[in-house]
Design brief:
Low-confidence stretches of chain A: none
Radius of gyration of chain B: 17 Å
Largest sheet of chain A: 6 strands, antiparallel
Number of helices of chain B: 1
Mean pLDDT of chain A: 87
Strand content of chain A: 35-45%
Distance between the termini of chain B: 55 Å
Structural class of chain B: mainly beta
Radius of gyration of chain A: 28 Å
CATH architecture of chain A: Sandwich
Order of helices and strands of chain B: EEEEEEEHEE
Mean pLDDT of chain B: 85
Shape of chain B: elongated
Oligomer: heterodimer
CATH topology of chain A: Immunoglobulin-like
Chain lengths: 165, 119
């Protein structure tokens, strides 16, 4: 018994240890993540109008931008100017839309809304702070001159861009 | 009938996201003389998107010829794809942006576009 104990003590440092650390590796780098946070829905308050505003029975879509480095990206959001799918329409559709900052993760982002640049249907924001910014993008489509939209399914596309500076 | 015109603009059930890194890629010499290469990664957290189109542009958004394994990259949900972009050294100085744009399928209504900048 004693011999066995001595042999065990001598060999102990040489016995391999099978328990191993399991590393979890990660890489933090500058990035921009575009996320659709809230579904948008067109309400139909008038036969000739589709609108995402709440008072018209719609839901304004919310798109979130996450950036990990300050002053590295521009956010550009373009509201629809055409339907991607719709029934056949014989008259023109008048589009209006706007995009605004709805929420921020950092108080320093409070100036984004005042500093935004709008051209055509595109609104550009300079993401000067790291963190998350939520943008609400409303859209309205009016058919002809008080003409009723044809019954069916309508889809329109919002373009959300994140451009490195 | 008209009252039934309540239509989804952005019909997503869950938060969906698109990401491309690095923000500032750098080109290096490739295995071919006169051709430079850089590597980028796309992460697809959009269930409604299975393809992303790659583009290379000047600072005036003029397209620049390039070669990659795919111009339109097929991606499954939650996939991360690493891809190489090869550009001729003759046009390398003009390269400003490398962009990925989600290819919208029926039902998907947000197109996301992320552009990295070559400095």
């Amino acid at each position: 018994m004693k011999k066995l104990l001595i042999v065990s003590l001598i060999l102990a440092p040489h016995i391999p240890v099978y328990a191993a650390d399991t590393p979890i590796v990660g890489n933090v780098q500058t990035r921009c993540l575009i996320t659709t946070d809230t579904n948008g829905v067109y309400g139909n308050p008038l036969p000739s109008k589709l609108s995402t505003t709440a008072s018209d029975g719609g839901v304004v879509p919310v798109i979130r931008y996450d950036v990990t480095l300050a002053d590295a990206y521009l956010a550009k959001i373009t509201t629809p100017t055409a339907f991607s799918t719709s029934p056949t329409l014989t008259d023109s559709v008048t589009w209006t839309g706007s995009t605004a900052v709805s929420k921020t993760s950092d108080a320093g982002m409070s100036g984004y809304e005042a500093a935004k640049v709008t051209y055509g249907s595109t609104t550009q924001f300079d993401l000067t702070k790291a963190g998350s910014t939520w943008f609400s993008s409303s859209s309205t489509a009016v058919y002809g001159v008080s003409k009723s939209f044809v019954g069916g399914s309508y889809t329109a596309i919002v373009l959300a861009e994140c451009i490195a500076k | 009938m008209r009252a039934l015109l309540l239509l989804a603009l952005l019909p997503f059930c869950n938060a969906v996201a698109h990401e491309m890194t690095p923000t500032y890629p750098t080109f290096s010499k490739s295995f071919m003389a006169g051709i430079s290469v850089t590597t980028l990664n796309i992460f697809n957290k959009r269930k409604d998107v299975s393809y992303y189109e790659i583009g290379v542009f000047t600072d005036e958004w003029e397209p620049i010829p390039f070669v990659s394994e795919y111009t339109i990259i097929p991606m499954k949900y939650l996939d991360t794809v690493s891809f190489d972009v090869y550009v001729s050294n003759l046009s390398l100085s003009s390269v400003e942006f490398i962009c990925s744009v989600s290819q919208v399928q029926a039902g998907a209504t947000v197109s996301s576009k992320i552009c990295s900048r070559v400095k």
